[in-house]
NAD(P)H-dependent oxidoreductase
Amino acid sequence: MSDSVSILLMSGSVRGGSYTRSLTQSIAACLEDAGQMAIHWCLHDKPLPIADPSFLKPSGSFQADIVQELVETAARCDGLVLASPIYHNSFSGVLKNALDHLSSRQLAFKACGLASHGGHRTSQAVDQLRLIARSVQSVAIPTQVCTDRDDFEIRADGIPALVAQDILQRLVRFCDEMVRFSLMLRTMREKQVREI
């Protein structure tokens, strides 16, 4: 078994130059620096149609090619990171819609990292995403990452860059947990398949 993992990172903001996207890119860079594969699915760049529940059956048909790509990517990955801006004390509707295209068939017994961006580093979005992770039988890792505007500097091109040292240090712990949990849970998934 390989000691490397592939992680799907879903950035739940459709705003160009979003803080959430920058946070997700920082997580991806941290994973890649540790020798892991990071697959960044930005919902600004790869929007999805509104989820149609009639396609959620395991029939093999998909609502659209882009949905099939998401489902197959999620099925192949060892874990996922869900990142969202905080909207009305919760996570974004576009991230909820993306998750509605997925199910426990793709996400059960996979590590799930949670991250959000909003005022005062509040945790409402990640708290609610923890419930979503549980509903698809994913295992949310203990460390979560919450940022606010003060954690970023705006570059000359107008794109925010994560610079807060305490958050960057937290990302290292977050990514280490993602790898450790993903490897442990991969072993569990493989054992289950052998026992069936």
